[in-house]
Amino acid sequence: MALPQKKYYRQRAHSNPIADHCFDYPAHPDEYNWSNLYPALHGNSEVEFLDVGCGYGGLLVTLSPMYPKQLMLGLEIRVKVSDYVNDRIQALRVQHPEMYQNIAVLRTNAMKYLPNFFHKGQLQKMFFLYPDPHFKKAKHKWRIINKWLLSEYAYILAEQGIVYTITDVKDLHEWMVVHFEEHPLFERLSKGELESDPIIEKLYESTEEGQKVTRNNGDKYVAVFRRISDKWKD
Ligand SMILES: C[S@@+](CC[C@H](N)C(=O)[O-])C[C@H]1O[C@@H](n2cnc3c(N)ncnc32)[C@H](O)[C@@H]1O
């Protein structure tokens, strides 16, 4: 089974995340049939890593063999792009039996339905790699990092869970840092803490967008945050 070719799955770059597309979504995470996405896996494992706006899926494919025990899911709003990721994963599973069983993609709007898919405190890691910058001020409300959505991300993340962000747009980087730092349930990781994390180096080039930024000699800004405890501290 050959890997899919991107040229057959092109779609315009932006899909309005506020418009009402028709998406099926469960009323509750337990109502979703997860074994459709991870058919080779038995047992009660739950998704722990979430790649939000996964694009063509490069991060999932890179992390899958690094963390074979963790279930990972990419969320992608564009139908052809999510079809590509699905076909890519199916082909990889055929080419490498026993591998890539822990990754899957779901077409949905990550700005709308996350609590329908994930329990409180379920996720260990969330990734926002090269999110759409929505440059114009009037479109800032479309940005996937904003103070309302951060509360939703804090809800589905486990305490001590990690959020990874990277972008080539300095203004968006600063926007993300300010929003996370102002939020009471997140704190930024120090440079020292980043050095010991093997995922950090994968943020730069494992995705298709990261490779494009490299080809264009763009800058890359990384910021990583921890979901801190919401227990009252004296
Ligand atoms: C610039 S691309 C980056 C893709 C990927 N992370 C990478 O680094 O190659 C942003 C992606 O996020 C997707 N996206 C934007 N808004 C979304 C939303 N609300 N829900 C799910 N995906 C979304 C877009 O369709 C696009 O594929």
Automatic annotation (TrEMBL):
Subcellular location, principal: nucleus
Domain of life: Eukaryota
Keyword annotations of the record: Methyltransferase, Nucleus, RNA-binding, S-adenosyl-L-methionine, Transferase, tRNA processing, tRNA-binding
EC number of this enzyme: 2.1.1.33
Cellular compartments annotated: Nucleus
First-tier enzyme category under EC: transferase
Enzyme active site: 132
Binding residues annotated for S-adenosyl-L-methionine, in chain numbering: 53, 76-77, 109-110, 129, 207-209
Catalysed reactions, semicolon-separated: guanosine(46) in tRNA + S-adenosyl-L-methionine = N(7)-methylguanosine(46) in tRNA + S-adenosyl-L-homocysteine
The keyword Acyltransferase belongs to this UniProt entry's keyword annotation: no
Pathway: tRNA modification; N(7)-methylguanine-tRNA biosynthesis
NCBIfam families (UniProt xref): tRNA (guanosine(46)-N7)-methyltransferase TrmB
Described purpose of this protein according to its UniProt entry: Catalyzes the formation of N(7)-methylguanine at position 46 (m7G46) in tRNA.
Similarity annotation: Belongs to the class I-like SAM-binding methyltransferase superfamily. TrmB family.
The name this protein goes by in its record: tRNA (guanine-N(7)-)-methyltransferase
Annotated organism of origin: Chilo suppressalis
